[in-house]
């Protein structure tokens, strides 16, 4: 099974990329928009890969910009009615962060805006992903529902590792957000980020 491909972006057609590796083999990869962002033909590209095999289509490669994207790709396909093509379309349309936001706010309309995703399916996606995302410590933000810095730091790092980041990367991102937050707020307001806000900002790092 192919887990990662690093090479030169040789060709690009819509959401498909041809990546030429040092071994001389070119791979046709179905990529998310984020995976192809800021990359042009002739430049180096690194993609995390999910390998699928179907009798009629053979081996298909799906490329992602991050482990978070790859995890959401698998998570979306656990929902009845969502296949690999639709999962890619949802990730490309909403992004990993957009999926988190839409599920967190129970905004099924965001999913139904994706071609091929009807009202019932979008509602099913929100419902089923809520239970999955809740297991990785994504908590609802409510007015006056704030946590102390040590507590949200621990919970945010746990959530990020469950989303696919390694412990060091998750801790680095969270620490950076907390430092930036402290630099822009008064001393007595430090740590007033909620868990969800901290996770969202850490994913944007």
UniProtKB/TrEMBL annotation:
Residue ranges constituting the Helix-hairpin-helix DNA-binding motif class domain according to the UniProt record: 74-93, 109-128
UniProt keyword list: Cytoplasm, DNA damage, DNA recombination, DNA repair, DNA-binding
Family annotation (Gene3D superfamilies): 5' to 3' exonuclease, C-terminal subdomain (1.10.150.20), DNA helicase RuvA subunit, C-terminal domain (1.10.8.10), Nucleic acid-binding proteins (2.40.50.140)
GO molecular function: ATP binding; four-way junction DNA binding; four-way junction helicase activity
Gene Ontology CC terms, in alphabetical order: cytoplasm; Holliday junction helicase complex; Holliday junction resolvase complex
Annotated segments matching region Domain III: 143-205
GO BP of this protein: DNA recombination; DNA repair
Subcellular location as annotated: Cytoplasm
Domain of life: Bacteria
Role summary: The RuvA-RuvB-RuvC complex processes Holliday junction (HJ) DNA during genetic recombination and DNA repair, while the RuvA-RuvB complex plays an important role in the rescue of blocked DNA replication forks via replication fork reversal (RFR). RuvA specifically binds to HJ cruciform DNA, conferring on it an open structure. The RuvB hexamer acts as an ATP-dependent pump, pulling dsDNA into and through the RuvAB complex. HJ branch migration allows RuvC to scan DNA until it finds its consensus sequence, where it cleaves and resolves the cruciform DNA.
Domain notes: Has three domains with a flexible linker between the domains II and III and assumes an 'L' shape. Domain III is highly mobile and contacts RuvB.
Entry's family note: Belongs to the RuvA family.
Subunit structure: Homotetramer. Forms an RuvA(8)-RuvB(12)-Holliday junction (HJ) complex. HJ DNA is sandwiched between 2 RuvA tetramers; dsDNA enters through RuvA and exits via RuvB. An RuvB hexamer assembles on each DNA strand where it exits the tetramer. Each RuvB hexamer is contacted by two RuvA subunits (via domain III) on 2 adjacent RuvB subunits; this complex drives branch migration. In the full resolvosome a probable DNA-RuvA(4)-RuvB(12)-RuvC(2) complex forms which resolves the HJ.
The protein's name in its UniProt record: Holliday junction branch migration complex subunit RuvA
Organism: Candidatus Sneabacter namystus
Gene designation per UniProt: ruvA
């Amino acid at each position: 099974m192919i887990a990662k491909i690093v090479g030169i972006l040789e060709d690009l057609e819509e959401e498909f990329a041809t990546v030429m590796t040092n071994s001389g083999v070119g791979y046709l990869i179905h990529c998310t928009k984020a995976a192809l962002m800021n990359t042009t033909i002739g430049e180096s590209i690194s993609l995390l890969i999910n390998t699928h095999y179907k009798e009629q289509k053979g081996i298909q490669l799906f490329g992602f910009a991050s482990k978070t994207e790859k995890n959401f790709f698998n998570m979306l396909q656990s929902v009845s009615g969502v296949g690999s093509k639709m999962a890619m379309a949802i990730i490309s349309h909403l992004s990993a962060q957009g999926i988190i936001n839409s599920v967190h706010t129970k905004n099924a309309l965001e999913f139904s805006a994706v071609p091929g995703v009807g009202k019932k399916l979008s509602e099913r996606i929100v419902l089923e992903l809520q239970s999955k995302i809740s297991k990785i410590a994504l908590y609802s933000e409510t007015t006056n529902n704030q946590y102390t810095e040590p507590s949200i730091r621990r919970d945010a790092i746990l959530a990020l590792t469950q989303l696919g980041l390694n412990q060091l990367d998750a801790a680095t991102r969270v620490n950076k957000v907390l430092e930036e937050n402290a630099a822009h707020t008064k001393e007595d307001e430090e740590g007033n980020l909620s868990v969800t806000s901290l996770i969202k900002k850490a994913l944007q790092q």
